[in-house]
Design brief:
Length: 134
C-alpha cells in the first residue's frame, strides 16, 4: 500500500500541471554595477543546482540570468559581490519570499548594499547579509 502511494506521488510529480508560481514562466534576475568611482565588481551567484561562475562587471555593466522556480518553490540564489578584497554576501532571490514580488528582478549594486529597482517606484534598498574579508 505504502509503495503504491509512493509511486502515485512520484507519478503525480512527473505529470502534475505547473503550480501558479512555477507556471512555466521564467524569472529573470539582473544585477548592475553601480559602485561609485568607476570600480569593477566581481559577482558570483549560485543556487543549489547552478553555479553561475564569477562575472566581472565594469561600471554600469549588467549580468542577468533566467530560471524556473522549482516545484517546491525553494529556489534560492545567493551571491557574493567583491570589490577591494571584501566579499559582500546577499541572497538575491528566494522564491518563498520573492516569487510574488518580481518576475523581472532588477538589482543595482551600491557600496552600502543592493537595491531592487522597478519603474515608477522608489528603490527598495537592503544592507548586506554578511561580509567576508578575502
Ligand atoms: C554610469 O551611469 C551613470 C548614469 O546612470 C553615469 O553618470 C556614469 O558616468 C556612468 N559611469 C560610467 C563609468 O560609464
Amino acid at each position: 500500500m505504502s509503495v503504491s502511494i509512493r509511486n502515485f506521488f512520484l507519478l503525480w510529480l512527473l505529470v502534475q500541471p505547473s503550480t501558479s508560481h512555477a507556471s512555466g514562466k521564467k524569472t529573470t534576475v539582473i544585477v548592475t554595477n553601480k559602485l561609485q568611482g568607476g570600480r569593477d565588481l566581481l559577482v558570483h551567484c549560485e543556487s543549489a543546482d547552478d553555479d553561475l561562475g564569477v562575472q566581472h562587471l565594469h561600471p554600469n555593466a549588467s549580468f542577468s540570468w533566467s530560471f524556473r522556480i522549482n516545484f517546491f518553490i525553494s529556489t534560492l540564489f545567493h551571491c557574493s559581490f567583491q570589490w577591494e578584497s571584501v566579499l559582500h554576501k546577499f541572497v538575491i532571490y528566494n522564491a518563498r519570499k520573492d516569487a510574488d514580488k518580481c518576475v523581472l528582478c532588477s538589482w543595482i549594486v551600491k557600496e552600502d548594499g543592493p537595491c531592487l529597482v522597478s519603474p515608477g517606484t522608489k528603490d527598495d534598498c537592503y544592507s548586506w547579509d554578511s561580509l567576508e574579508e578575502r
